[in-house]
Design a protein that fits this description.
The complex is a heterodimer. Chain A is α/β, with parallel strands linked by helices. Chain A is 40% helix and 29% strand. Chain B is elongated and about 195 Å long. The chains are: A alpha/beta, B alpha+beta. The A-B interface holds A 19, 21-23, 51-56, 58-59, 62-63, 65-66, 69, 81-84, 86-87, 90-92, 95-97 and B 539, 542-543, 546, 560-561, 564-565, 567-568, 571-572, 575, 623, 625-630, 632, 634-635, 637-638, 640-641, 644-645.
């Protein structure tokens, strides 16, 4: 799976591309958790390139939120399509994970 | 040629410079000797003059005019050259001494030693500032020999020597320069032909050589001229040969290109002809299903890449009898296709004539034996069903035995009738058998293209996989589609080497339906199947599944939201089945069957799997979606998502299958 990565100051922005399903999520999991363990605990996931997410993808995001929280960091997501947002909503994730409209909002809310 | 030229210049110039240096050094040394010698002679002269003068003075004292010896010395000293002069008698006593104002006049120890050692010969020697000359002066009166000692200023002598050396050096420099210039000219002259030949050789390599390049050298009459001429000759020959070779290569290349084009055209023609043959082969087979009261027939053939010889047929013989035929011609390609067309036509004509299956096959055999120059043969099965009582009379000429599928999914092979394949030998009897097909039961006919289909690893489909599909208790078109689907999926990526042909004849329950024993699995796809997919319990299947479902969503213009929810529901449920439904290592090709049925505004989804009993609605733990990040367990979300997204969800356990029926509401949310 293609994962674009950028940094804005100490904020790590990861933008997975395409599907976040049980086949592709392990790739995001290893890349993301590795960076968090490496000390990058300010993380936002850019969803603009994601057109599908299943519970396997949700699992990775929850793990990332837990790890960054435990390390005293911050985890958020942004640029989410409505149908993706709905999945987060019905899973109850919107109440526990921060979702911003775009990167500017992420940077403003730090 | 720079090295050669430089070496020539260095060697020649160096030699010249060395010899000039030697000559100049010798000349300079020689000039110095000459100068000293001249000074000595001069000193001798002066000495002699002084001696004679002194003696004359002494003589004059005794009578002649008086001339002082001191005057003589003073005269001598008036010139700057002589600094001091001594006249000594044979005992070394000073008779007269004279010296200039700037120089002290004292005899040194060396002077004394030289005077004592004098032996009638003039000697000279250098001290720091002067040249001293000691010369004997024979007395005129025989009164013993005197000695004259002169000190001469050496500065003048030195300056003469210096100018000698300077001249020598100047001459040396001029000659050396001239030698180098001359040598460089000579070296250039010597190396130019070599440079020309080298340039010509380099030009040969880059193919820019022309005979002009060597004209200067070939004009010479020496060894280099001969070398250049030899080279030019070789170059001429090589160039000529290359030209011929290149011409040949060009010629052959264009010939090859032409041949290739012809081959390609021929290939394309053959491929096109094969395609046409294939199309014709399919077009002579019935495409419409036969659906009569009490019985129906569906069939399909997938042709091999090469043209094969499979065929099927079905027809109403009269008001209540249906004939089904399947056949497989040996061999492949155009001959097989041609023989198939003949066999199919003969069998159709005979079957329609209404004869018993055994008779039909026997007559067909005789006819085919007459028109079989290539000695092909065809295996064939003919069966006739009487719709009224379900009696099914059949004859099998060497074909794979068809299967009878009972209502509870039990599969038995129809016993052979001992017949030989058609076209081998005329006048052979064909046996017959008879069975009864009960309502809800089906007969399944197939060719070896099904059981002998290969996957990419060379594994065969075999009867076992075929039976697994037959036991799904489906009939008619669904059975045909599932079987074709299963074979195609199995042989995905492998080249299909043989036609694949299947035919299903089943008796529909036109009388009172029997509900006491297992009716066929109600397949939501049976009436309006829009998509049926069967996948194995391997996680790699999920990708293919998502792709197919995605295509389905696209083709049916589902909204992105609905497409995503459909995609998600299928992934969640199927991945759960694959992960948890089976024991490790228990891989089944028909593990999960997914069917989608689209009606206005609603999509019915059925996932039927052969895994261990599991009701996701009752058995899956409900996640606490209100929990905080820290408390929220990772996982356990999938079923919850599916439940939330689907408008309706029902689970049933059907014999050995978990069946989950879901309904996705396609109307957009308000």
């Amino acid at each position: 799976m293609q994962i674009d990565t950028a940094t804005h100051g100490d904020l790590l922005v990861m933008a997975p591309q395409g599907r976040l399903d049980s086949n592709t999520s392990p790739a995001l999991e290893s890349t993301l958790l590795e960076r968090i363990e490496g000390g990058e605990t300010q993380v936002s996931i850019d969803f603009s390139g994601v057109d599908y997410i299943s519970s396997a993808g949700l699992r990775v995001l929850l793990m990332a939120a837990k790890r960054t929280g435990a390390a005293g960091g911050q985890f958020s997501m942004h640029s989410m399509a409505p149908e993706i947002r709905e999945v987060f909503e019905i899973s109850g994730f919107l109440t526990i994970l921060k979702v911003h409209p775009d990167l500017t909002a992420v940077l403003a809310n730090r | 040629m720079r090295t050669f030229r430089a070496r020539l210049i260095l060697l020649g110039g160096g030699l010249a410079v060395f010899s000039v240096l030697l000559t100049t050094a010798f000349q300079t040394w020689h000039a110095r000797q000459d100068l000293i010698h001249a000074t000595e002679i001069q000193g001798e002269e002066i000495g002699r003059l002084l001696g004679h003068g002194a003696q004359a003075t002494l003589l004059a004292e005794s009578g002649g005019p008086s001339l002082s010896i001191h005057d003589l010395i003073d005269d001598l000293l008036s010139g700057e050259q002589v600094q001091a002069a001594w006249i000594l008698d044979q005992d070394g006593k000073e008779i007269a001494v004279g010296h200039g104002t700037t120089h002290a006049a004292e005899l040194t120890g060396e002077d004394r030693a030289r005077i004592e050692a004098i032996d009638g010969m003039t000697v000279s020697y250098f001290t720091e500032t002067a040249l001293t000359i000691v010369t004997p002066s024979s007395s005129l009166n025989g009164g013993g020999d005197w000695t004259v000692l002169l000190r001469i200023d050496r500065s003048e002598l030195d300056s003469s020597l210096r100018s000698e050396i300077l001249i020598g050096l100047a001459v040396f420099l001029v000659v050396a320069l001239a030698a180098f210039l001359l040598m460089s000219q000579i070296a250039g002259w010597l190396s130019a032909p070599l440079a020309d030949i080298t340039a010509a050789a380099a030009a040969m390599e880059t193919r820019t050589y022309t005979p002009e390049m060597l004209r200067r050298v070939t004009a010479r009459k020496d060894e280099l001229g001969r070398l250049a001429e030899t080279f030019a000759g070789m170059a001429r020959e090589v160039l000529g040969r290359e030209e011929i070779l290149e011409g040949l290569v060009r010629e052959r290349t264009s010939e090859l290109n032409e041949k290739n084009l012809q081959l390609e055209a021929a290939n394309a023609r053959v491929a096109e002809e094969l395609r046409i043959t294939q199309r014709m082969q399919i077009s002579i087979l019935p495409t419409q299903a036969l659906e009569m009261d009490g019985a129906r027939v569906f069939a399909r053939m997938i042709p091999a890449r090469e043209v094969g010889g499979d065929f099927y047929d079905f027809m109403n013989i009269d008001d209540h009898r249906i004939a089904v035929v399947i056949g497989d011609v040996s061999g492949k390609g155009v001959p097989a296709a041609f023989f198939m067309a003949v066999a199919r036509t003969v069998l159709r004509r005979l079957a329609l004539a209404g004869g018993a299956p055994g008779e039909t096959l026997a007559s067909a055999n005789d006819e085919l034996c007459e028109v079989n120059p290539l000695e092909l043969f065809v295996t064939a099965f003919v069966g006739i069903l009487d719709r009224r009582d379900g009696s099914f009379v059949y004859a099998n000429a060497g074909h794979n035995p068809p299967c009878l599928i009972s209502r509870d999914g039990e599969v038995t092979f129809l016993e052979r009738t001992g017949g030989m394949a058609l076209g081998v030998m005329p006048d052979l009897p064909q046996g017959e058998r008879s069975i009864t097909i009960a309502p809800g039961e089906a007969v399944f006919l197939y060719t070896d293209g099904v059981t002998e289909a290969f996957d990419a690893n060379g594994v065969q489909f075999e009867e076992e996989r075929m039976l697994a599909v037959l036991k799904q208790k489906v009939a008619g078109e669904t059975l045909v589609e599932r079987m074709i689907n299963a074979v195609e999926r199995f042989s995905d990526g492998a080249e299909r080497s043989d036609d694949v042909t299947v035919l299903s004849l089943d008796r529909t329950a036109s009388e009172a339906p029997d509900t006491t024993v297992g009716a066929p699995v109600p397949d939501p796809a049976a009436a309006e199947t829009t998509l049926v997919i069967i996948v194995a319990n391997r996680s790699e299947e999920l990708g293919r599944l998502a792709e197919t479902v995605g295509r389905f969503a696209e083709e049916n213009e589902l909204s992105p939201r609905a497409a995503m929810q459909l995609d998600m529901a299928i992934e969640e449920i199927v991945s759960n089945v694959i992960k948890y439904g089976f024991d490790t290592g228990d891989v089944r090709e028909d593990a999960v069957e997914l069917s989608l049925k689209l009606t206005a505004g609603r999509l019915a989804i059925r996932v039927a799997d052969r895994g261990r009993p599991f009701d996701p609605l009752a058995d899956a733990p409900e996640p606490d979606i209100g929990a905080s990040v820290e408390d929220r367990p990772i996982g356990g979300l999938g079923v919850h998502l599916v439940k939330t997204v689907m408008a309706d969800l029902r689970y049933t356990r059907d014999d050995d299958r978990n069946v989950l029926d879901m309904v996705l509401d396609l109307t957009p949310p308000t």
